[in-house]
Design goal:
The protein is an alpha+beta fold. It has a domain of 243 residues: Amidase signature (AS) domain (Amidase signature (AS) enzymes, Alpha-Beta Complex). It has 14 helices and 15 strands.
Length: 484
């Protein structure tokens, strides 16, 4: 049954409904693959096999009575460890939370279960979800299925690795700094960062901090764009106090064929260097779009100062995440910030200042973001999507012995600061826009590259549909070698 390991979640659901495949049979196939391959990957960190088997049996019984629970009936899935799952640990990789076990599920967990999915485990994360590598002292290091000496990305790194290796058929991650898009890019799968606010984050919250963080979103990860679209429909909508009043009606895709799209392309930026192997794949995507009849421009840009927008993102991002950090971290940041020279604009300096900024400083930055959002909205009156990189390079080697402020990546043979890549994270994240990461082929070294498809506010279905159409032109998910 190896051939089913890499099918899309919707195709697996179709085969289940056709009685070509049993729910328990498929779950046991996934669990067998976990036994064989997870020890070398460490993608899945908590298994819930017996509860999953009982649910799969009930799913089989339901189908025998011609009862279907939803579009993912019987499909095995895992979920990022940062989501609450009743009875399983939810720690965000923090040993101080080693005994934290939620009593109820996160809202999107319940919605995915309501769609028929069979949840059988949780996947690894970096400490407090704050890295593009996935490792922590509790669960250890997650490896990239394409090259185990490399990181799978973060913070949804375990999620992407499990999908890429065919251990799980569907996932959900979260994104405040490319934490869905980066692992999808590094591992060659699909990931969607939704428009801010359209998916509930309830139950994906650092214990003791129930209010959603600014910029943070949760969203689907999968092996096909069609799966993303269906999972988005399942997961979206208000919850809690807001559910009393509002309902979400996202507009449909702007076009039904690639030939209708107006595509802006941004392969590189002076704010963040991009490796030629990545830029070449973005160009290959642009060329394929043009060949299929899309109108393509490599010069169209919003009226936004990109360098200033990046600085704005760092300030707002670190302002958002500082609230869940220990007081000792903030005190230390204040001491370090006091030693900075006034002209130091390094990532470290910006991050330290942002962690201790006043509310007035944050509010001024938020006003600038609002102006940038208006500029992007104007841009998308003339253009349907913007294509750009997700990160500066393909998956990087593990680099855990250097403090994040001082890590580096090699770009076109030069050493660059690891943190500069936040530019590509923030280009859609900071201004609350949807961004889909879709497979864009392999580098000459055989590593996957993703293209980031940025779209207009609340037009998530446009970026996902564009990803689906793109697969028709260049192909979609490709399994990594060695997991047959």
């Amino acid at each position: 049954m190896t051939d089913i390991a890499y099918l899309s979640a919707l195709e697996l659901a179709r085969r289940i409904r056709a009685r070509d495949l049993g729910c328990l049979e498929l779950l046991d196939h996934c669990l067998d693959r976990v036994d064989r391959y997870n020890p070398g990957l460490n993608a899945i960190v908590e298994l819930d096999a017996e509860r999953a088997r009982e649910r799969a049996r009930r799913a089989d019984d339901a189908l025998a009575k011609s009862e279907a629970w939803g579009p993912f009936h019987g499909v095995p899935m895992t979920i990022k460890e940062a989501f609450g799952v009743a009875g399983l640990r939810m720690t965000w990789g923090d040993p101080d939370l080693a005994s934290h076990v939620p009593e109820k599920n996160a809202v999107v967990v319940d919605r995915l279960l309501g769609s028929g999915a069979v949840l059988f485990g949780t996947t690894n994360v970096p400490l407090r979800l704050m890295d593009w590598q996935t490792y922590n002292v509790m669960y250890g290091t997650t490896n990239n299925p394409w090259d185990v000496s490399r990181a799978p990305g973060g913070s949804s790194g375990g999620s992407a690795a499990a999908l890429a290796a065919g251990l799980s058929a569907l996932e959900a991650g979260s994104d405040i700094g490319a934490s869905i898009r980066n692992p999808a890019h590094y591992c060659g799968v699909y990931g969607h960062k939704p428009t801010f606010g359209i998916l509930p984050t309830t139950g994906h919250d650092f214990p003791g901090y129930p209010k959603p963080l600014d910029i943070l979103v949760v969203g689907p990860m999968a092996r096909s764009a069609e799966d993303l679209a269906t999972a988005l429909d399942v997961m979206t909508g208000a919850d809690g106090l807001d559910a009393k009043a509002w309902r979400l009606e996202l507009p449909g895709p702007r076009h039904a064929a690639m030939a209708g799209y107006r595509v802006a392309v941004m392969r590189e930026s002076p704010v963040c260097a991009v490796d030629g192997a990545v830029a070449d794949r973005i160009q290959a995507v642009a060329d394929a779009c043009a060949k299929a009849g899309a109108m393509v421009s490599d010069s169209a840009r919003p009226e936004v100062d990109m360098a200033a927008a990046h600085a704005n993102y760092i300030q707002l991002l670190r302002g958002a995440t500082a609230g869940i950090l220990p007081r000792s971290f903030i005190d230390d940041a204040a001491e370090q910030a006091a030693t900075l020279s006034t002209d130091d604009e390094s990532f470290r300096a910006r991050a330290l200042r942002a962690a201790i900024q006043s509310h007035r400083e944050w509010s001024i930055a938020d006003q600038q973001r609002t102006r940038d959002r208006a500029a992007w909205e104007a841009f998308f009156r003339d253009w349907d999507v913007l294509l750009c990189p997700v990160a500066a390079t393909a998956a990087m080697p593990h680099q855990q012995d250097v403090e994040r402020f001082f890590r580096t990546v090699t770009v076109n043979g030069r050493t660059e600061n690891y943190n500069d890549q936040l530019f590509w994270a923030g280009i859609s994240c900071n201004v609350y826009l949807p961004g889909t990461s879709a497979p864009a082929g392999l580098t000459p070294d055989g590593l996957p590259v993703g293209v980031q498809i940025v779209g207009p506010h609340l037009e998530d279905r446009t970026t996902i549909e564009f990803a689906r159409l793109l697969a028709d032109e260049i192909g979609g998910f490709v399994p990594p070698p060695g997991y047959d």
